[in-house]
Specification:
It is a single chain. The protein has helices spanning about 5-40, 45-60, 70-85, 90-105, 120-135, 140, 150-160, 165-180, 195-210, 230-265, 270-285, 295-305, 310-325, 330, 335-350, 355, 365-380, 380-405, 415-425, 445-450, 475-490, 500-510, 510-515, 525-545; strands at about 70, 295, 430-435, 460-465, 495, 520. The chain is mostly helical and about 550 residues long. The chain folds into 2 domains: about 5-395, no CATH class; about 415-545, STAS domain (Transcription Regulator spoIIAA), CATH 3.30.750. The strands form 2 sheets. The chain has a 4-stranded parallel β-sheet with strand order 3-4-5-6, with helices on both faces. Strands 1-2 form a two-stranded antiparallel ribbon. Helix 10 (about 230-265) packs across helix 11 and helix 17 runs antiparallel to helix 18 (about 380-405). It is globular and about 75 Å long.
């Protein structure tokens, strides 16, 4: 028999999962419809793809809820493949099938760990590029004009065909933008602005009888299983498209996994995550629906609403099916200009505003990488952009390391200090710990270091000795921010020991000294240890008096 507390806890978990799944479904519906139309497969393929992938990946995936479906980067890749293959649906489905198979094979290797070492400017440049592509490609349908599948044609057409735009569609599209951008977040906690815009603008279109392009047809019937016709020549010819799609789907899933791990403090297996996504995408390809990835926005929405287990990932597709069957007639009336407005907001949300705020402080090398990845993503090829960015970042880092290389005599670290650290940890039962960040602290080591801060349970004061002389790159600075936030969430006071004032100045420019507290920053470890001991003793006396 379960105790009343156990029953109450289980009911709270189930309630949180149901509410989280419903919230994720409300966010997923307009996005799946819009991305389905944007790829050329149709709205139904987007929604059914989200249903199938989310359900399969939810059952087979990690314990934490991962809400999956078609996303911005995957939609852009599929639209590009569709354009390259002259809208041959059979060939595009073959590419999706091969991409899913590559994901499953990838899950059997350790290559899933590679995403940890992708430099932040590469990720930022790629996401900024994807967001920009989505915005540019939706300008034409926003104005009631014919959509195009690449950025250059979209830009050319939107300027040359303004005189032929559908005024009614343009006005409705502008109203959509006003709703999705204008309504404050506190008013859209339980009804997101995207679904609100979808409902309001579609009702206006129906009531006013507007003659504008609409979705027109969405099948509520479950997609039929079918194998695409293929031969060895097609498989070899389309293989590079499949690799591109598989890498984008896997990278986005792994990035969502990292975000989820940070929020839940539960480390999920990347191999299992990719395997479940690959099997889910295989099912999507076999049903002619759109593949996808674990979607960050939907997953975070589910977690913030109270979801804690994979049950939320099963609730989401069930809610989507109910919405599709109940409102298929309404969905068919949704204007394409409304979906375009929603996608423009999604594109804006994808853009890395966090980096743009501090871009003037970023090192030039980071900006070179970001700019090249951004331009190649928008105007050439996504996978070439990521490859070029990683290569350039590696070369610039190698050059930086080579320029610093010189023969120097470095004395062994003071043994007395080491003994003092060990004595303090022992005497204070590890409530005070001292650690050293040794070696190069850059985009590779930063991610590895963050993971180690989950092993500090019981610690109240953590003294971090920054044993590096060089200033930090932007990836390391963001990693430092993550470390600070993670320690705060664990109620651990951070004390920083720096080697020089240049690093202090850099931390100050990025406002990280405000997060740490200037009185918690020292240039001598002995002073830092004494401060921690006095603070711990003082707090103990306060508790004793209470």
């Amino acid at each position: 028999m379960f105790s009343s507390e156990t029953i109450k806890l289980k009911l709270n978990i189930i309630t949180g999962d149901i509410l989280g799944g419903i919230n994720a479904a409300i966010i997923a519906l307009p996005q799946a419809l819009a991305f389905g139309v944007a790829t050329g497969f149709g709205a139904g393929a987007g929604v059914w793809g989200a249903i199938i992938l989310c359900f399969v990946a939810g059952i087979l995936g990690t314990k934490v809820p991962m809400i999956s479906g078609i996303t911005g980067p995957s939609a852009i890749v599929i639209a590009s493949v569709m354009h390259a293959l002259n809208k041959d649906i059979n060939s595009v489905i073959l590419v999706m099938l091969m991409a899913a198979a590559i994901q499953i094979i990838l899950s059997l290797t350790k290559l899933t760990d590679i995403v940890k070492y992708v430099p932040y400017p590469v990720i930022s440049g790629f996401m900024n590029g994807v967001g920009t592509i989505i915005i540019i490609m939706q300008l034409n349908p926003l104005l009631g004009l014919q959509p195009f599948s690449n950025t250059i044609e979209s830009l050319e057409h939107v300027f040359t065909a303004l005189n032929t735009m559908n005024i009614k569609a343009a006005l409705l599209g502008l109203l959509t933008l006003a709703i999705v951008f204008g309504i404050p977040k506190r008013f859209t906690k339980y009804l997101p602005s995207q679904i609100l815009a979808l409902i309001i603008c579609t009702i206006i279109s129906i009531k006013a009888g507007l003659d504008i392009p609409k979705i027109a047809n969405v099948s509520a019937a479950f997609p039929k299983l079918s194998l695409p016709s293929a031969n060895l020549h097609d498989i070899i010819t389309y293989f590079h498209y499949a690799v591109t799609l598989a890498i984008i789907l896997s990278a986005e899933t792994l990035m969502t996994g990292l975000v989820c791990n940070s929020l839940t403090k539960i480390n999920s297996s990347p191999q299992r995550l990719i395997a479940s996504q690959g099997i889910g995408n295989l099912c999507c390809a076999l049903t002619g629906t759109l593949p996808g990835a674990a979607a960050t926005m939907r997953t975070v929405a589910a977690l913030k609403t109270g979801a804690t287990t994979r049950f939320a990932a099963i609730v989401t597709p069930v809610v989507l099916i109910l919405l599709l069957y109940k409102f298929s007639g309404f969905v068919a009336e949704i204007p394409l200009c409304v979906l375009a407005g929603i996608l423009i907001k999604i594109g804006y949300d994808i853009i890395d505003v966090k980096l743009l705020k501090v871009i003037k402080l970023a090192p030039k090398e980071d900006l070179y990488v970001l700019a090249i990845v951004f331009l190649l993503t928008v105007f050439y090829n996504l996978i070439v952009a990521v490859g070029a960015g990683i290569t350039l970042a590696a070369l610039l880092y190698a050059k930086k390391a080579a320029d610093r290389a010189k023969l120097i005599h470095k004395p062994v670290y003071d043994e007395d200090i080491v003994k003092l650290e060990q004595k303090v940890e022992r005497d204070y039962k590890h409530k005070i710990r001292a650690v050293h960040i040794d070696g190069e602290f850059f985009f590779g080591s930063a991610t590895q270091l963050i993971a180690q801060f989950d092993e500090l349970l019981g610690t109240r004061y953590l003294i971090i000795n920054c044993d590096f002389d060089e200033t930090l790159d932007i990836s390391a600075l963001f990693a430092f921010e993550d470390i600070i936030l993670r320690l705060k969430s664990q109620h651990i006071k951070l004390i920083l020991v720096l080697k020089n004032k240049d690093i202090y100045k850099q931390l100050s420019e990025y406002k990280l000294t405000d997060e740490i507290g200037t009185k918690h920053i020292f240039y001598s470890e002995i002073e830092a240890i004494e401060f921690a001991k006095k603070s711990l003793t003082r707090n103990a006396h306060k508790k004793y008096k209470k």
